[in-house]
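RECORD TYPE: inverse folding
INPUT: structure tokens
STRUCTURE:
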């Protein structure tokens, strides 16, 4: 039951009707706080419960989010990352909060750090720069961070397996995997990340500035295909 739920949940979070909102508060040292909120539509929750009923005992209570398991996975081998909360605000909404000593510590693999997926640097004038770049060249290092369940999902739906597919071909495949509404759900799925800095925001790339906050909205389809470079940055003092 746990494996089945994990597989469905990860599939859902990556590929279907789920709202993903993240907030990061970043200080001058590169450390800070992270909050992530994952909301699943009621239609999709009902659909997953129906699927689960086909493979599990009727006496087992269906739940989308196993908070203890999620907290355990987040804390496992994560030096410099401290989980402060994993809560279910309502049956379809998961909230995760943690602190981190550095942005690089969110990618605990030395390979991922070497790949420069996330870089935090101090410039000559004393300002701080955060640079994030993800493409097919460095994706393999990010892939190494996934759990076994996540790897199953990403191996099927991620950029390595589907290299060379056009967007139309990929969406057709997703319609087959997720049902008639699969491609529409995927097109509408956005990962929204709000980064607030402690100091003065000087510049940004790839997002929208709102005061001392930069809002990055990443279409999920672009992440899954990586048919173009995903690059984002901000500079603050």
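DESIGNED SEQUENCE:
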């Amino acid at each position: 039951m746990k494996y089945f739920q994990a597989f469905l949940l990860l599939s859902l979070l990556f590929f279907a009707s789920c709202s993903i909102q993240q907030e990061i508060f970043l200080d001058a040292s590169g450390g800070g706080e992270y909050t992530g909120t994952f909301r699943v539509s009621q239609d999709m929750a009902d659909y997953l419960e129906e699927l689960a009923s086909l493979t599990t005992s009727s006496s087992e209570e269906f739940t989308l989010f196993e908070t203890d398991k999620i907290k355990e996975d987040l804390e496992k081998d994560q030096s410099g990352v401290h989980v402060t909360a994993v809560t279910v605000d309502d049956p379809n909404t998961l909230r995760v909060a943690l602190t981190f000593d550095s942005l690089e510590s969110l990618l605990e693999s030395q390979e991922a750090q070497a790949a420069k997926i996330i870089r935090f640097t101090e410039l000559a004038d004393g300002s701080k720069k955060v640079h994030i770049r993800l493409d097919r060249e460095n994706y393999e290092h990010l892939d190494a961070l996934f759990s076994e369940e996540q790897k199953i999902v990403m191996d099927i739906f991620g950029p390595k397996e589907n290299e060379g597919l056009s967007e139309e071909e990929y969406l057709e495949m997703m319609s087959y995997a997720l049902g008639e509404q699969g491609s529409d759900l995927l097109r509408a799925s956005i990962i929204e990340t709000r980064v607030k800095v402690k100091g003065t925001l000087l510049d940004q790339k790839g997002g929208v500035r709102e005061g001392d906050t930069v809002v990055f909205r990443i279409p999920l389809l672009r992440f899954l295909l990586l048919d173009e470079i995903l690059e984002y940055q901000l500079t603050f003092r």
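NOTES: DSSP finds nine helices and eleven strands in the chain.
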